[in-house]
User: Which sequence fits this backbone?
């Protein structure tokens, strides 16, 4: 069971998420509708994980995202799963560039992913467990923007890179692609060599991939 603080200004979606999380055994200790309430709820309840929309009242720009980053600076290691209505790589970049130094799980998902209940709940569990989770559609956009330097990779290596950037480990990538884990390890080694990336495991590996993709868009 996870203790969750939920911040979502859309009343119906907020109620639906509370129902979903409660049904699978999590406790929503606070469900709020703006960034100020989010900050107060986290300070008061110290949840296991925060779920927040990017755009929140009063400005409906990036209030939820900025609140999440501020909360992670006050509560280092606080796991945060950010939800966004649209693919906005600038928001994803801001989250992972500004929040990775504090440690703890980080996630960025499109709201459409909530409808894929098992995927959403798996992402929540992974973020709460300290992992990095990124929506596949965001990764697809980043890869397209960085297409030219990625021509050094084979088609299979590009598939492995995309799944690696989503936060999957070698075992999970092997299951997704129906190959052996040894094959994934070999492909990953080739990727890191060709792109001059740090081959560290876990979140550092994901963040290295994201840093590369962000850099190629500059």
Assistant:
């Amino acid at each position: 069971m996870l203790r969750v603080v939920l911040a979502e200004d859309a009343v119906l979606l907020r109620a639906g998420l509370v129902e979903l999380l409660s049904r699978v055994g999590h406790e929503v200790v606070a469900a709020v509708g703006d960034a100020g309430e989010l900050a107060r709820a986290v300070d008061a309840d110290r949840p296991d994980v925060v779920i927040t929309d990017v755009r929140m009242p009063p400005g409906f720009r990036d209030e939820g995202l900025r609140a999440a980053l501020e909360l992670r600076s006050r509560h280092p290691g606080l796991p945060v799963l950010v939800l966004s209505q649209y693919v906005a790589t600038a928001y994803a970049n801001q989250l992972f560039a500004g929040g990775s130094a504090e440690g703890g799980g980080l996630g960025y998902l499109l709201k459409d992913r909530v409808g894929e209940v098992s995927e959403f709940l798996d992402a929540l569990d992974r973020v709460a467990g300290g992992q990095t989770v990124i929506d596949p559609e965001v990764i697809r956009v980043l890869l397209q923007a960085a297409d030219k330097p990625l021509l050094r990779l084979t088609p299979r290596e590009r598939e492995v890179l995309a799944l690696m950037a989503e936060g999957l480990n070698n075992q999970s990538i092997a299951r997704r692609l129906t190959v052996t884990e040894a094959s994934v390890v070999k492909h990953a080694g080739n990727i890191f060599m060709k792109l001059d990336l740090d081959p560290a495991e876990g979140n550092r590996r994901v963040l290295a991939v994201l840093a590369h993709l962000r850099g190629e868009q500059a």
